[in-house]
């Protein structure tokens, strides 16, 4: 080792790549560089263009629920029931996803309060295999609904998904009617079921529990739809309108009740619970 290398290694320099990754975030909309701390403090909303970035399940729960909430243990389900393999084994894909995520699968349920009002919140994390809906997601969704039924309180679900999990085939698709039955049970019990649609909410999730809420809230600019725009455009052979499948377009055409900024989401949910919640909640 020469003297220059020894001096360089002894100085408290931070590698350029590490500095960029730790200190700066590039907005996916305006492409401006934003301090990572400023971005995080602003709830992952770009302070330049107001673009709403994607956030994980734990951060979402902490933004919505009061301190002291309980995170429900994720249910055990059969893994890789079809022994599926494409370019990788399904089991390897699960291991890879879990290595970079604090939870075992894409749906996490928190039970607590929103501004002092009892609520159960289920969050779908796009960071775990694109939030895809498999047996673990469907079972966790139902587990959250059961907790809301037992507490006699609203069930709020924050969706973010690319659709069904192809590695589980028909078993994944069966989560759609299973979740639908639970939304019906909530309705029969007179309990509010509120859906917060975030970017992106697509595929089988949109075709089931994402669009069955009593009230549908969307974050600004969120992509919401079933099939992709290119598929629709090629099928109908017509150019789609500007902003098609975005939250604001769906709100204008009556498919979403309101578009709410992330900073006001907690307050909005608390107000809705006041309007909709049965008096005997506990």
Helices and strands in order:
Layout: H1 3-10, H2 16-23, E1 24-26, E2 33-35, H3 36-41, H4 57-64, E3 70-71, H5 90-99, E4 107-114, E5 117-124, H6 135-151, E6 155-161, H7 169-173, H8 175-188, E7 193-201, H9 203-206, E8 215-218, H10 229-236, H11 247-252, E9 258-259, H12 262-276
Parallel strand pairs: 5-6, 6-7, 7-8, 8-9
Antiparallel strand pairs: 1-2, 3-4, 4-5
Helix pairs in contact: 6-8
Please explain how this structure is put together.
This protein has 282 residues and is an alpha/beta fold. The protein has two domains: 15-51, no CATH class; 55-276, Alpha-Beta Complex (2-enoyl-CoA Hydratase, Chain A, domain 1), CATH 3.90.226. It is 39% helix and 16% strand. It has helices spanning 3-10, 16-23, 36-41, 57-64, 90-99, 135-151, 169-173, 175-188, 203-206, 229-236, 247-252, 262-276, and strands at residues 24-26, 33-35, 70-71, 107-114, 117-124, 155-161, 193-201, 215-218, 258-259. Strands 3-4-5-6-7-8-9 form a seven-stranded mixed beta sheet, sandwiched between helices. Strands 1-2 form a two-stranded antiparallel sheet. Helix 9 (203-206) links the parallel strand 7 (193-201) and strand 8. Helix 6 runs parallel beside helix 8. It is globular, with a radius of gyration of 21 Å.
């Amino acid at each position: 080792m020469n003297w220059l290398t020894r001096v360089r290694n002894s100085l408290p320099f931070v590698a350029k790549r590490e500095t960029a990754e730790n200190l700066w975030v590039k907005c996916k909309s305006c492409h401006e560089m934003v301090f990572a701390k400023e971005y995080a403090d602003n709830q992952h909303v770009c302070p330049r263009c107001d673009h709403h970035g994607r956030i994980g399940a734990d951060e979402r729960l902490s933004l919505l629920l009061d301190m002291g909430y309980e995170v429900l243990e994720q249910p055990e389900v059969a893994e890789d029931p079809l022994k599926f393999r494409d370019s990788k084994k399904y089991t390897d894909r699960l291991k890879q996803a879990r290595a970079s995520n604090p939870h075992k699968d894409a749906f996490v349920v928190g039970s607590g309060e929103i501004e002092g009002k009892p609520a159960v919140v289920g969050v779908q994390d796009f960071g775990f295999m694109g939030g895809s809906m498999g047996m673990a997601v469907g079972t966790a969704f139902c587990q959250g609904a059961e907790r809301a039924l037992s507490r006699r309180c609203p069930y709020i679900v924050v969706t973010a998904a690319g659709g069904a999990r192809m590695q589980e085939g028909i078993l994944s698709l069966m989560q759609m009617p299973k979740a639908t039955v639970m939304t019906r049970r909530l309705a029969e019990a007179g309990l509010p079921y509120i859906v917060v649609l975030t970017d992106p909410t697509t595929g089988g999730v949109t075709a089931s529990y994402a669009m069955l809420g009593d009230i549908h809230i969307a974050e600004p600019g969120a992509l919401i739809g079933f099939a992709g725009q290119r598929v629709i455009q090629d099928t109908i052979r017509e150019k789609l309108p500007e902003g098609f499948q975005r939250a604001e377009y769906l709100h204008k055409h009556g498919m979403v009740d309101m578009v709410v900024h992330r900073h006001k989401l907690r307050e909005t949910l608390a107000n809705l619970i006041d309007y909709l919640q049965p008096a005997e909640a506990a």
